[in-house]
Amino acid sequence: MEDQSVYIDEIGRMYRIKEPIPLSEPPKGLRIARTSKPWSTYLRMLGTVIPAFFLMYVLLFLVIGLISLEPVIVLMSGLCSVPLVIFILSLHKPRLVHVQLAVPDEMGSEAHAISSGVSLRTPMKTKFSRFLVKDDSILDVPP
């Protein structure tokens, strides 16, 4: 009986550790309300515009190198454009939000294992589910 899901304290009492609930599909039509953070939107826009400005000139040198048949200019401008493109794409990758939902249910439980070592205790019986949704706050525009 000595396995990972049973804990025995100093007195000899045995506690069964619940396994975390696996991720499930989010409900259809789920809306998540969040407070707007205008400064993060401004910084995200600046983080896109400034590298795009430099990328425009690097790509201009790439075209000039192609027209004048200068392989050194083409190689250098190509190498300089790669970090800028990677940085811009990393700013706009979809972020995920871990949603944990406890809904009152008579057939549920009062204690839920969330992840390793973390649990949730509710005053009433609830059914617990957790899922990942895409964070669509990237589409926020400043007020």
Give a written overview of the molecule.
- The model has no long low-confidence stretch (mean pLDDT 82).
- It contains two helices and four strands.
- A hairpin with a 5-residue loop joins strand 1 and strand 2.
- By secondary structure, the protein is an alpha+beta fold.
- It has two domains: 59 residues, no CATH class; 44 residues, no CATH class.
- The protein has a two-stranded antiparallel sheet with strand order 1-2.
- The protein starts with 5 loop residues before the first strand and ends in an 8-residue tail after the last strand.
Produce the secondary structure layout.
Elements: E1 6-8, E2 14-16, H1 38-67, H2 71-91, E3 95-115, E4 118-135
Antiparallel strand pairs: 1-2, 3-4
Key attributes of the depicted protein:
143 residues; alpha+beta; 2 domains; two-stranded antiparallel sheet; 2 helices; elongated
Order the strands across the largest sheet as they lie in space: 1-2
Mean pLDDT: 82
The rounded Rg comes to 26 Å
What is the string of SSEs from the N terminus onward?
A: EEHHEE
Low-confidence stretches: none
Described by strand count, sense and barrel closure, the largest sheet is: 2 strands, antiparallel
Q: How many domains, as an integer?
A: 2
How would you name the oligomeric state of the polypeptide chains in this document?
A: single chain
Tell me the structural class. Answer: alpha+beta
**What is the helical fraction, as a range of percent?**
25-40%
Shape: elongated
Number of helical elements = 2
Amino- and carboxy-terminal Cα gap: 60 Å
Per DSSP E runs of 2 or more residues, the count of β-strands stands at 4
Strand content: 25-35%
